[in-house]
Amino acid sequence: MIRTLAIEGYRSLRDLTVELGPLTVVTGANGSGKSSLYRALRLLAGAARNGTVAALAREGGLARTRWAGPPARSGPVAIRLGFSGDDYGYAIDLGLPPPSRTSKFGNDPEIKREALWSGPLLRPSMLLADRDGPLISIRNGRGRLEPALEAVSPFDSMLSEYADAPLIKLRERIRRWRFYDHLRTDADAPARRATIGTRTPILGHDGADLAAALRTIVEIGDHDALDAAIDAGFPGSRIEIAVDEEDGVMRLALRQPGLERPLGAAELSDGTLRYLLWAAALLTPRPPELLVLNEPETSLHPDLLGPLAGLIATAAARGQVVVVTHSAALTAALDADAHTIELVKEEGETRVAGLGRFEGPAWKWPTR
User: Fold this and answer.
1) How far apart, in whole angstroms, are the C-alpha atoms of residue 59 and residue 186?
2) Using one digit for the tens of pLDDT, what is the confidence trace for 280-303?
3) Architecture of the CATH domain 179-341
4) Count of CA atoms in the C-beta half-sphere (13 A) of 237
5) Spatial separation of the C-alpha atoms in residues 231 and 57, rounded to whole Å
6) How far apart are the first and last CA of the chain?
7) What's the whole-model pTM score?
8) Beta carbons within 8 Å of 200's beta carbon, 6+ residues apart
9) CATH 3.40.50.300 in the chain, residues?
């Protein structure tokens, strides 16, 4: 489980270190920095797939994503991202590329430092892998850091490009993190269409496989929890999954009291469809180590926030969950089970409400 998340120099997150729990709710007013924290988590996850540099470039590079005010400390321009738990910690430091007259990739930052260590806090004696520029050092069987034979490119993460047991283990753990952000429910949303059905233990990011994901929960997951979630959201209702025997196409429908026929996915309201999407995502038969939800309350009727909170609490009992929300009602519904982080913005900088600058969890960055 991630216990500490640290971000420095990214957008309004000048120097933010926060503690995470099994269920963490990140809340705050519009513009307080919630979306930046969510993006920072996605950038960290991108290191395991070598996507952090490209993701920052798509946002405009360091010139448009780095903190625009006074730096948190003296030194070179940097965006630093890191996390740690009881077993492992990881940090990545991205900086400006050297001036070039030939390269056309001016928005690509360079990876200046990376570190993987054992335990919650970075200490030299606990380093398992250390990257300084293109050079990587790996702790050998005798407990010493020794240079690796291969160097890495400035745009490649050692986490994704180097084959060493601790790096591989952490890489695979991070690759199993799961993010859901604004699942579509408009008239043309993929979740409203019939699709070929195949076992789907993990709902896709666009929800196109909703019918198959729900049917998978019925067959190999916690179908009682699914039935309870549907009844909590829509009392007396149940889902039905029809399958065309010839082509294997699956169609989702919701049977509700008082109606002579079930409503197909194309007929459901945005809020109803979104709640079914969250049920499929949160009751997954293959829970991730970390599940991050961005504004799951979007388009839901207030009466559905309580049942949604119940689904989130169920997911948090099987893996770590982070919920980013501006809904006071959802925050209140989760309050008994959650560690709540309220973000505020002071002079352009995102801070944690009620915490002084030096009152967060302990953290150390690798130095350039």
Assistant:
1) 26
2) 999 999 999 999 999 999 999 999
3) 3-Layer(aba) Sandwich (3.40)
4) 19
5) 45
6) 28
7) 0.94
8) 209, 212, 213, 215, 216
9) 179-341
